[in-house]
Design brief:
- The mean pLDDT is about 85.
- The chain contains 4 helices and 5 strands, in the order ββαββαβαα.
- Strands 1, 2, 3, 4 and 5 form a 5-stranded mixed sheet that branches.
- The radius of gyration is 17 Å and the shape is globular.
- It has a single domain, classed as 2-Layer Sandwich (Transcription Regulator spoIIAA).
- A hairpin with a 3-residue loop joins strand 1 and strand 2.
- Helices cover about 35% and strands about 25% of the residues.
- Helix 1 runs parallel beside helix 2.
- It has about 130 residues and is of the alpha/beta class.
- Pfam families: STAS_2.
- This is Anti-sigma-factor antagonist.
């Protein structure tokens, strides 16, 4: 028996097809692996990002995490990115965030981790 999606946008049925909130593209480069998350980064989707970064580290490669297509990022995801950066560092590799959009830079700044995750974007006041 096939079922069409719910007629009301407010009603969810278990057979309704939901789009994934996050996709991750991998773009190998000669000296590193570009990991490009697309969509929402939160506690329910960060496992996919973690798997991609761990894959790169298993290949003994640095990681460029391109955040330009991230549309949402919660605290749990930021904590995971911090853990991934530590894991990369402990393995002798780098994890660098690029393409950080203004909303995400604001989140990272409010959480006090912008200077750790993307120091190249933080203005130093002397």
């Amino acid at each position: 028996m096939t079922r069409s999606p719910s007629a009301s946008p407010w009603v969810f049925h278990p057979d309704d097809v939901l789009e994934p909130v996050l996709r991750v593209r991998l773009d190998p480069r000669p000296d590193h692996l570009r990991v490009v998350p697309v969509g929402e980064l939160d506690d329910s989707s960060v496992d996919l990002l973690r798997a991609a970064v761990e894959h790169a580290l298993a290949q003994r490669r640095d990681v460029q995490l391109v955040m330009a297509e991230v549309t949402f990022c919660d605290v749990a995801a930021v904590e995971d990115v911090l853990r991934l950066q530590r894991t990369a560092h402990d393995a002798g590799h780098r994890l660098v965030l690029t393409g950080v959009r203004p909303f995400l830079l604001h989140v990272l700044t409010v959480l006090g981790v912008a200077d750790v995750l993307c120091p190249h974007l933080v203005r130093r006041v002397s």
